[in-house]
């Protein structure tokens, strides 16, 4: 099977490797044979992969350059040609970036020695039995907006009845959206080309990372294997030989492409480190700032942590053991408990004058937002100028400049509002039914990230929540299946959320049932109310669930606390379906919990607007 169709023209060849079918292309313009890392993993050829003596760079038809560091030798490939089969041993370069499974170049053609019919553009193979097979060229077609699909059983019936007029091999490639950066923005980016160079060495800045340890703590040494990343870190000047009494083990984490990332296990050091109090911003607070803006730029620093120096006297504490000796970092590595706080502090210090005006920063993800393209160009100059002044390097491949729609922190932002990341929504849609409590927690965590988009999330998810309790035996009942399907449906049929407008009053609509509470924060847009965020909670106790009055009061209390940063200190409206909320300030006998809730509610300035349950859109 070919994962993604290429752009260009190739001969289609079916290959069998170890009993597994692989779709491949024979390309007379390629000087080498290539196989994707994903295909290597699928064919279980990982043990045969070897490093090249030197890196090989190859350019694809779309001008993209692939850098290849590994190869696999003498793979037994069986080629099927219309019922005939030929076997050859072929070596491949292993690529992490090949957009399909296998590409057979001139090395393959030299092995099989086919003939070419240049007039008809046909590749001719002679089989050992004397039979001749012709392979025609694959060519990308024009864009097709509509097409029909047929299930396998229907196709087989047509085939048996000899109803087909012709049979074709079709590879569908997704239409790529053309993104054009405004010329004013391109001009600004070109002026700061030095920011996109590889970061090396150590830059002395005001912010350095410090590691304060608890007095009299003991450090334990652990050993683990060395990985080739050590050589790269030494060449960049980020680590050096150490004589430290500290020693952390080396771990390896597989990356998406199948390669390994070296990680240092600093759990021992973190356990004796005095924790700093530098807070990270709430993602929702950052996203609130872009209301009314039409142009966005996302900037990501390159190896961001490694651009922060470690305080000189703390460098020995970062030591890690390898088979070649002990090394220590002179820049901030991943895995230190206080590293995120240090990095956020460094970014806040640089951009403090402009934070929340036209820039928000979450660690090494920088978002610039503006109302006009001219304003955006000026904002971009300021940000890139500050990065140059403080000698930070930027990852150009991860940046997006002057876009009207952008993906930031898992959300798609545009002038229209806020939406979930389509890629994550797709993964939720295709999520298989959980078979264990661990799988339930994974699904719960993925959907929970986007709970602001789902009305009554907690109520819907209640059966799944109950299933994760320690005292609950595993039993996937009908209620669990219903909750699972409802959450998947809700996340794939989401409503585009409006970004809050500080100049308009908010409307809080609440509702409560015996299972949970639900609330929605809205603002008027034309004649309708547009949702900004949904909130839901499970009912905390059966006793509370029995009282309609207390349920409604609890729903209002939780909604006001949840949206405190929007509502406190400003007038807003509360819509509820129960008249008893009108008398919350006149009750003479109250429980301690009710007194506490009313004390909080009294802090807010709102007007109650009772409505009937059928008129509301937050009921469960």
Automatic annotation (TrEMBL):
Listed GO MF terms: endonuclease activity; peptidase activity; RNA-directed DNA polymerase activity
Record-annotated Reverse transcriptase domain positions: 234-413
The keyword Nucleotidyltransferase is assigned to this record: yes
One Pfam family recorded for the sequence: RT_RNaseH_2
Gene3D superfamilies membership: 3.10.20.370, 3.30.70.270, Acid Proteases, HIV Type 1 Reverse Transcriptase, subunit A, domain 1
Keywords, ordered alphabetically: Endonuclease, Hydrolase, Multifunctional enzyme, Nuclease, Nucleotidyltransferase, Protease, RNA-directed DNA polymerase, Transferase
Descriptive protein name: Reverse transcriptase domain-containing protein
């Amino acid at each position: 099977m070919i994962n993604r169709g290429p752009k260009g023209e190739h001969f289609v060849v079916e290959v069998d490797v170890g009993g597994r079918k692989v779709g491949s292309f024979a390309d007379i313009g390629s000087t080498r044979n290539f196989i994707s890392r994903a295909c290597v993993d699928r064919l279980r050829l990982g043990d045969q992969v070897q490093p090249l003596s030197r890196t090989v760079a190859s350019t694809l038809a779309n001008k993209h350059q692939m850098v290849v560091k590994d190869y696999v030798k003498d793979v037994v490939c069986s080629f099927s040609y219309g019922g005939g089969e030929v076997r050859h041993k072929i070596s491949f370069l292993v690529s992490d970036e090949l957009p399909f499974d296998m590409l057979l170049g001139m090395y393959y053609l030299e092995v099989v020695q086919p003939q070419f019919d240049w007039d008809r553009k046909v590749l001719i193979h002679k089989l050992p039995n004397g039979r001749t097979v012709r392979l025609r060229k694959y060519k990308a077609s024009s864009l097709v907006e509509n097409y029909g699909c047929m299930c396998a059983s229907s196709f087989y019936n047509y085939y048996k009845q000899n109803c087909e007029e012709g049979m074709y091999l079709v590879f569908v490639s997704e239409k790529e959206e053309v993104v054009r950066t405004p010329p004013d923005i391109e001009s600004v980016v070109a002026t700061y080309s030095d920011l996109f160079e590889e970061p090396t060495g150590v830059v002395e800045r005001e912010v350095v990372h410090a590691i304060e340890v608890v007095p009299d703590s003991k450090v334990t040494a652990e050993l683990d294997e060395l990985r080739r990343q050590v050589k790269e870190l030494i060449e960049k000047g980020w680590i050096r030989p150490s004589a430290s009494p500290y020693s952390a083990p080396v771990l390896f984490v597989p990356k998406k492409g199948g390669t390994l990332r070296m990680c240092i296990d600093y759990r021992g050091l973190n356990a004796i480190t005095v924790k700093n109090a530098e807070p990270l911003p709430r993602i929702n607070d950052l996203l609130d700032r872009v209301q009314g803006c039409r142009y966005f730029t996302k900037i990501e620093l390159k190896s961001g942590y490694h651009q922060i120096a470690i305080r000189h006297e703390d460098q020995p504490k970062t030591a890690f053991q390898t088979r070649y000796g002990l090394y220590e970092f002179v820049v901030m590595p991943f895995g230190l408990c206080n590293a995120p706080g240090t990095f956020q502090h460094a970014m806040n210090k640089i951009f403090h004058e402009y934070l929340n005006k036209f820039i928000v920063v979450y660690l090494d993800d920088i978002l610039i937002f503006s109302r006009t393209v001219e304003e955006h160009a000026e904002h971009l100059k300021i940000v890139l100028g500050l990065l140059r002044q403080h000698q930070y390097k930027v990852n150009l491949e991860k940046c997006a400049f002057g876009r009207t729609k952008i993906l930031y922190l898992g959300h798609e932002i545009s002038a229209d509002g806020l939406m979930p990341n389509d890629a994550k929504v797709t993964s939720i849609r295709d999520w298989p039914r959980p078979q264990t409590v661990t799988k339930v927690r994974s699904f719960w965590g993925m959907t929970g990230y986007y709970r602001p988009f789902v009305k009554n999330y907690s109520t819907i998810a209640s059966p799944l929540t109950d299933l994760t309790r320690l005292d609950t035996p595993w039993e996937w009942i009908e209620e669990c299946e219903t909750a699972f399907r409802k959450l998947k449906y809700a996340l794939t049929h989401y409503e585009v959320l409006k970004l809050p407008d500080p100049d308009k009053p908010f409307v809080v609509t609440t509702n409560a049932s015996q299972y949970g509470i639900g609330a929605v924060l809205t603002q008027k847009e034309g004649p309708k109310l547009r949702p900004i965020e949904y909130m839901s909670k499970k009912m905390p106790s059966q006793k509370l669930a029995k009282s309609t009055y207390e349920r409604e009061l609890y729903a209002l209390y939780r909604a006001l606390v949840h949206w405190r940063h929007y509502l406190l200190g400003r007038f807003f409206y509360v819509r509820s379906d129960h008249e008893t909320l009108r008398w919350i300030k006149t009750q003479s006998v109250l429980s301690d919990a009710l007194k506490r809730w009313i004390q909080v509610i009294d802090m807010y300035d709102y007007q109650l607007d009772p409505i009937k349950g059928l008129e509301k859109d937050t009921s469960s």
